[in-house]
Design a protein that fits this description.
The protein is mostly beta strands and 352 residues long. The chain contains one helix and 21 strands. Strands 1-2-3 form a three-stranded antiparallel β-sheet, with no helix packed on it. Strands 4-5-6 form a three-stranded antiparallel β-sheet, with no helix packed on it. It has a three-stranded antiparallel β-sheet with strand order 7-8-9, with no helix packed on it. The longest helix is centred in the N-terminal third of the chain and has 32 residues. It starts with a helix and ends in a 21-residue tail after the last strand.
Amino acid sequence: AEEKAAAEAAAAADAAAAAEEEAAAWDAEEEEEGGGGGAQQRVLLGRGFHLDVDETSVSAGNFHTCALHRLEDGGVGGEAVCWGRDDKGQCRPPADTVFIQISVGDFHTCGVTLEERIVCWGERRGLLPTPLEDVAFLQVSSGANYACGVRKDGDVACWGSIPGGPPDIDENGRDFVQVSAGNPVACGLHEDGTIECWGAHYHSVTTDEPEGQFSQVSVSTAGYACALRVGNGEAVCWGRERRGRLQPPAGEPFVQVTTGKVFACGLSESSGKVICWGDLTRAHHNMPPKDMSFLEISASTDVICGVTGLDDEVGLVGENDDEPLRVLCWGREAGHGEGVPGHIALSPPPLW
């Protein structure tokens, strides 16, 4: 008991020291910015500022969806559960494997294991070569026929069918904290909150990246992307305009953004409600109650899935780490022909 108490005290001390160091860094940056210099200062936000993508609990795809089933012992991560189209094996994850994050593509699925390795299943033809087995990854994002992952050293690796790879490493190395793969474009989020995109020059996604600092980026498979600004949480979208998908509501702070084909959705910071813009003709099919709140959302072409509590009461859910969670999907063929399995007990996503 004494050893456990000592370990907990040491962990608390480390966390407090890290918080003080981060606060001191912010104070120093604010003082430097107030010194009257005309140039914009490089603000290193650190690896904890962006969304905690290493605990993504659900990922919606065009033809199948996967979620992480919470472990019985309550440990970190969960087992992958997939449903929908399975002609390429995309709904058959490896058994006895614990994942901390999962991402669905068109006919494949990739996940980051508890050992920080990437495992992919489904259509293999477009996914070769796969990442090195001895490389540690923090996050993975599946595009249409390829995938990209953020390595533990901050580098980004992509494999499969993507025209052009990540940008060349410069003298400062790489410092990515998140990557989002679309078709045929991917975008990465740097440690300082800036966005860099690569791939085909498709509808200006790779040439018109917005300036400023962002906390998350989501790339659609249909020629556009959206991101959330640091500070006010507003969504910014760029690329090819179709049916209002590049026009998020002004002045609405979000904690997460996700992109479909002709629509995008954000998770409201104040209420946890899903707010969407663009053409929702198909995505509105079987939509949940407007007052329901969510902890996490994921969109594909015409499908949206969200993580919520087991009841439909109005208010924020997931305030207790032990609260059971579930997946709800809506839109065109939201259940992918079979519906969401009823036995899923999700690993709770982080509270933002």
